Amino acid sequence: MTVPDERPVGDELTTRVYMLLLRLKAPRRSLLLQEGYSEEEVAAALGSLQSRRLIDASRRDVIEVHPPDTTLPAYAADLERQARATRSAIEGLAHTYYEARSTGGTARTSQDVSLLDSVADIESAFFRASGRAESRIVRLVARSDRMDQVVIRHAESIIAARPTKTHPSLERLVVFEQSILEVEGAFNALSALRADGIDVRLTPHLAFSVLAVDRAAAVIDISHLEPGGGGSLYVQQRQLASALMDMCIGLFSLSTPLPRTPSGPALHRLTQRDGEIIALLAAGASDATIARQLAISQRTVERRVRTIMEELGATTRFQAGTNAVRRGFL
Q1: Whole-number average pLDDT of the chain
Q2: Which of 87, 162, 75 minimizes the C-alpha distance to 120?
Q3: Residue from 104, 80, 291 nearest 181 by CA
Q4: 9 confidence band (pLDDT: 50, 70, 90)
Q5: Which residues pair with 136 in a beta bridge?
Q6: What are phi and psi of 276, to 5 degrees?
Q7: Neighbouring residues of 138: CB distance < 8 A, sequence distance ≥ 6
Q8: ∠ at Cα 137 (132, 142), nearest 5°?
Q9: β-strands 55-56, 171-177: how paired?
Q10: Residues 201 and 252 sit within 8 Å (Cβ to Cβ)
């Protein structure tokens, strides 16, 4: 008989009993008692395991242990759901806590500005803030490996809010660093965002990422500087949230609209592919970037750019974009 050196309690007791049950070919309560566990410990551990649907201990002595490869994933999913429910309740519970302890003075409680410790915290804050959007939501997206992957694989989550019957005129704006066009497939992803009604713009550089919502909430994301996300902020202090919205709108107004693929009548020697090249030229893309986005060789790009400039009577790339607009090609 094996008697534990120290009497386990709670989850430790449950884990020890579960591991023993897995090793027993024919698990029984009586065998657990023989191992040195008391009646109370056996009852507590089996009750906990049964509540987690890992075993069936409804019979007097015989214990049925369910296969862990089917029960543990389901139990883990339950824990994840509980964790999500707990996280969603944090804001309201924190408000109750600080409200009860408020002195009624001018000091601000920590619920106004929350420090975020991880990328998971950033994402949670992002979706909480987005869910409050009623009239305007703006996002500035600084380059990082994580955000590059989001743009290519899950572009629809860049602005996690859509107009609704309650808020049909929700304005959605997003600014990316111009270098995002160096990522293969980015132009198509950004064009899809615009097709969904999001106003997409480009700017040379962003110091950090921001989500601003209705002058009421904002998320400052510095995960491009700290990949773990530590040091980012969830802002609900209205004056600061309003200032961040003003900053975002100011940067948006100074940024370059994502050029559209030409929809006007084709010019004499210019094709639809030439139109895509013009759009990328107007966005400031290099020949190498254009080749990557359109999956063609850089030499082909260089040849088509010469043809485009000749057709549009332009001597510079910038002038080519301007002339394309004047002639109704862009």
Answers
A1: 83
A2: 87
A3: 291
A4: low
A5: 171
A6: -65, -40
A7: 173, 174, 175, 210, 211, 212, 245, 248, 249, 252
A8: 120
A9: unpaired
A10: yes
Residues 6+ apart with CB under 8 A from 115: 231, 232, 233
Taken in order 221, 223, 225, 228, the sign of the CA dihedral is: positive
Is residue 220 within 8 Å of residue 125, measured between CB atoms?
no
**Looking at the whole model, is its pTM more than 0.85?**
no
Query: Would the pLDDT of 4 be above 50?
Result: no
Distance CA 278, CA 291 (A): 12
Give the Cα-Cα-Cα angle 193, 196, 198 (nearest 5 degrees).
60
Rounded Cα distance, 35 and 1, in Å: 5
d(CA 257, CA 83): 40
| Per-residue buried b or exposed e for 81-111, using 16+ beta carbons within 10 Å of the residue's own CB | eeeeeeeeeeeeeeeeeeeeeeeeeeeeeeb
Portion of the chain with pLDDT greater than 70, in percent: 84
pLDDT tens figures, 242-265 = 999 999 999 999 888 887 766 555
Q: What is the rounded CA–CA span in Å between residue 306 and residue 290?
A: 14
- Partner residues linked to 113 by β-bridges: 235
Structure tokens belonging to residue 326: 């004047």
pLDDT cut 90: percent of the chain above it: 30
Provide the residue type at 130 as one letter. Answer: S
- Residue 54: both structure tokens together: 């890992």
The 10s digit of each residue's pLDDT in 143-184 is 999 899 989 888 888 998 888 888 889 999 999 998 888 888
Tokens found for residue 38: 């008391």
pLDDT tens digits along 22-70: 999 999 999 999 999 999 899 989 988 988 889 998 888 999 999 988 8
The position carrying tokens 């089917």 is 70
Q: Which residues contact 91 (CB under 8 A, 6 or more apart)?
A: 111, 128
Contact 230, 117 (CB under 8 A): yes
